[in-house]
């Protein structure tokens, strides 16, 4: 079976963008792929954070994975920091990562501009190397993510190729009783790492803010009105949709560049109801905003309600959740350690 990996940061609340761009797709993919889903707690400390809240947020995120339908008989769920190899491989990878590649990352530029120089730690810059490590450790074939991770995925691929080229053809050989590193002459392309591909959905890859159709829905936007959180109560969802930004055109349509909010809300409706774009376009073409907003709010409430019920069950059973995370970390450690050992070997370290 081909393998997929992906993860979400335990910062802020998980919102509709995370769900439609990533988690919802994981649920269908777990049926066809060997799947590993982690909660990237090590990434969550790259900006100032509250240490008192980290472990709770990490467990809550794991509970959301389960509540959304990740099935532990098909997929593993684990906490990134529980598998030490992530940080270890990151160091090895960072030795071959040009700083220029990292300086070019859009998310780094945006986040560091917002945070201000005093708050920007080195880890914010090296964040994509840790993400590459998360992916390459598992020799992943595909990585289901939203569009905002595209650039990080490109860096991951380039890094995999670079390491493969630098160290790929070398093998340990016994020579006169000593272990030494020499070219085996066999320079297979993917010798050390498989070069993974992103899986970015056609619809849902970029869910936009409810208050501005030109910026993406995000955990860090100051106004909670701008996003639907998966755990928002019914009345909050209804209120956010009622107050969300619209326009004064008549009828509703997809893909009109002058109507980003309209396109976004129709896309959310399409994904949450499981209909095709054509069906939604036809159904809503003559609708006014009032009618559509009621439909959309009801659809969201109906879709999220069962997830919220399951979430409450899971979060009230900490022993179950701990068991899931332990099992996940045990399986992940096995795969990760094997890769890590082969990288140490290929890079010329003395074998333990
Ligand atoms: P994070 O926590 O910011 O987001 C988690 C996932 O949600 C997607 N996403 C969106 N999709 C559509 N519309 C939006 N408005 C939206 N906002 C977020 C993201 O694309 C992502 O798939 N660096 C990653 C976490 C990570 C990771 C990894 C992912 C670390 N290591 C290895 C995959 C593989 C991040 O910060 O995601």
UniProtKB/TrEMBL annotation:
It is found in: Mitochondrion. The keyword Nucleotide-binding applies. Its EC number is 6.1.1.2. One of its GO terms (biological process) is reproductive structure development. The keyword Aminoacyl-tRNA synthetase applies. It is an enzyme of class 6 (ligase). Keywords: Aminoacyl-tRNA synthetase, ATP-binding, Ligase, Nucleotide-binding, Protein biosynthesis. Belongs to the class-I aminoacyl-tRNA synthetase family. It catalyses: tRNA(Trp) + L-tryptophan + ATP = L-tryptophyl-tRNA(Trp) + AMP + diphosphate + H(+). It comes from the Eukaryota. This is tryptophan--tRNA ligase. GO terms for molecular function: ATP binding; tryptophan-tRNA ligase activity. GO terms for cellular component: chloroplast; mitochondrion.
